[in-house]
Amino acid sequence: MSIRVLVGVKRVIDYAVKIRVRPDKLGVVTDGVKHSMNPFDEIAVEEAVRLKEKKIAKEVIAVSCGPAQAQETIRTALAMGADRGIHVEVPAKEVEKLEPIHVSKILAKLAEKEGAELVIVGKQAIDDDTNATAQMTAALLDWPQATFASKIEKKNGDLEVVREIDGGLETITVKLPAVVSADLRLNEPRYATLPNIMKAKKKKIAKMKPADLGVDTTPHFEVVDVSDPPARAAGIKVDDVDSLISKLKEVGRI
Questions:
Q1: Quick one: pLDDT at residue 247?
Q2: DSSP state of 19
Q3: Domains (ranges, CATH) in the chain?
Q4: What confidence tier does 1 reach under pLDDT thresholds 50, 70, 90?
Q5: Are 66 and 90 contacting, i.e. CB atoms less than 8 angstroms apart?
């Protein structure tokens, strides 16, 4: 039996861009800055498409919350092989206040509405590094979760997932429906080919607002200050091990 997969894709500042703090110190500069799909979400899309190629999934739906430009991120997912997209419109001035709990509620509502049996997201976004959306989505849906997945296989109607943990690898079995978060070593995302990019332009993207799903996006937190990390102090050279030990004792390291 094939399943429907919902994949979350976030538009973030490209990983190669040097981040700059805004003059008001309440965020980072985003205007005129290159954005792309969150790298962990690319891995999530790739895995969903592979599940479809294995006939495990019958449809892959890409979801993104954000301003009009978020549609570019959805189109990237469609070019990689997703079947259709859903754009949950959040104005640019509000998107930086969008919290994981808001996104989790949106994904949970969409999973119910679309009849999805599997939700896959990246383990974290490279802008806020929160690592909370998958866990909260699973809690809201009351579905089992398999986070930090480095391998996914379907066995006897269930998912066998190899997880990356502090001590090494852990293999678990979860029953469907379920929520999975993709880790770095799950796969190598494909490049979208030009024909698929052209086909993606014709694929359907539905538009809606959080309120259409009954989700209130009022922020729970207020940003007080954003600043650059302190400059690292210059190192020193020592002549021998004894001098090194003496210096470490001076600064209280040993």
A1: 86
A2: P
A3: 3-250 (3.40.50.620)
A4: low
A5: yes
Q: What is the mean pLDDT of residues 11-29?
A: 89
From its phi and psi, is residue 81 left (phi > 0), alpha (psi between -120 and 50) or beta?
A: left
Give the H or E element holding residue 111. Answer: helix 100-114
Three-state SS at 152:
strand
Residues with Cβ < 8 Å from 68, sequence gap 6 or more? Answer: 89
Q: Which two tokens stand for residue 49?
A: 């498409």
C-alpha span between 200 and 194 (Å, rounded): 10
Residue 162's SS3 state is strand
What residues contact residue 21 under an 8 Å CB cut-off, 6+ apart?
A: 27, 28, 29, 226, 227, 228
CB 59 within 8 A of CB 52: yes
Beta strands in the chain (DSSP E): 3-8, 11-13, 35-37, 57-66, 84-89, 118-122, 145-155, 158-165, 168-174, 178-182, 205-208
Does the pLDDT at position 115 exceed 90?
Answer: yes
DSSP 151-170: EEEEETTEEEEEEEETTEEE
Report the candidate in 168, 128, 129, 131 with the shortest Cα–Cα distance to residue 147: 131
The partner residues of 155 in beta bridges, in order of sequence, read 158
pLDDT value for 167: 86
Distance separating alpha carbons of residues 250 and 126, to the nearest angstrom:
37
Contact between 70 and 87 (Cβ < 8 Å): yes
